[in-house]
Amino acid sequence: MTISFLGPGLWNANNSLGAGGALEPYLVNAANSIVFALMGFGCISSALLVNAIGVKYTLILGTLGWAPYSASLYQNNRYGTEWFVILGAVICGVSAGLYWAAEGAVVLAYPEHKKRGRYLAIWLAFKNSGQIVGGAINLGVNVNRATGGKISYATLLAFVVLQVPAFPISFLLSNPELVQREDGTKVKVEKKTSTAEQVKILGHTILSKKLGLLLPLFFSSWFYWGYASTYLTLYFSVRARALASFLSAITGVIATTALGFYLDTQRIPLNKRAKHAGVFVLTLFSGMLIWALIIQNAYIKNNPGKLDWLSRGFGRGFGMYIMLNTAGNLVQNYLYWAVGSLGDGTGELTRATGLLRGVESWGQCASFGINSSKFSPLYTVVINIVFWVISVPIAWFSLSDIGKVSSHVTRTEDIEDKKSIEKV
């Protein structure tokens, strides 16, 4: 959890400043597109590395990229260095792919099934607490800057210093075989197989109905983030961006904590929890996209300039950003829980969460790629809505089945059982 605070938490704080705190969003958006492109491949293929060296050491390797990327943003902010931003993006993208899949497996596989919702909430709270601390630092440094511009480089330097300890701290993580659950059960750890066998299992997982139907939703669920970062940079003052980073993290923690406890409520059958939470979260996010479309259309017709919290009309546009990010956090929490309900064990959940975070990353890659040019933000929202409208009905066929049938997607044991049957 501490690593979530220091690594992705502060990385999110960077991006919640709007384009990493830069004056204009285009270079940082291009860099983020590189991060997420590489991260997608890393997440999906990370199960191969987990099979070889284990989930702990995969996560350790995944912590190496956060500080270099923040350092590159610091260099760009202070000295105008551009090549380092691209190099930092490459390093971060490769390592983050390993980190996200391994961390997802740890968060979902280590606790008992009935506690996964609250553990997800705690994990997201730690991740968002990085953004809260980062936002507080940023707000303190930039509180008197009521105009547009770039964030103070001192903010980014503080992030670098805080992210460096993530690597040594990651060695303190227990191996799954040593985890002691409260109910005495053990964490399931798949036995090692060949790389070719792992590729085959991954292929079966991708083609399975349970996860295959969710892939379009994974892609569209984080597509909004590139737009949100650009929106904040284009239309808000430095201190308003700092406030947005701070408040959106707080509302995210509150919302995901409430959702996590509901998802773990044992009085309500699993299938009903999946349906009720799904309807609420997906409907809320749909409403936020429509609100974003309305606000963005108004800003295209009449550019408000750099809105400050003393500006007329500030609350309308600022509130949309906060609620859009809160709804996005809820969607992520729900999808991780849903994926966790479809499997068990470090190997199976590494594949599942790797697919979730990998395909999400490609959605973010596409969004940041589009927003690295001067493509109309209005059309970005329209594209997001189209993807979302197409993906939700498809995903519902899988989400509505949670708790009805056998929960497991393809495991190593499943492949071996199938081979045994074929031989007979």
Task: Give the SSE layout.
Elements: H1 2-16, H2 26-53, H3 55-62, H4 66-79, H5 83-109, H6 116-142, H7 153-163, H8 166-170, H9 195-207, H10 209-212, H11 215-221, H12 224-235, H13 238-263, H14 270-301, H15 314-341, H16 346-370, H17 377-399, H18 412-423
Can you describe this structure?
The protein has 424 residues and is mainly alpha-helical. The longest helix is centred in the C-terminal third of the chain and has 32 residues, at 270-301. It is built from 18 helices and no strands. The radius of gyration is 21 Å and the shape is globular. α3 (55-62) runs antiparallel to α5, α5 (83-109) runs antiparallel to α16 and α11 runs antiparallel to α17 (377-399). The N and C termini lie far apart (47 Å). 75% of the residues lie in helices and 0% in strands.
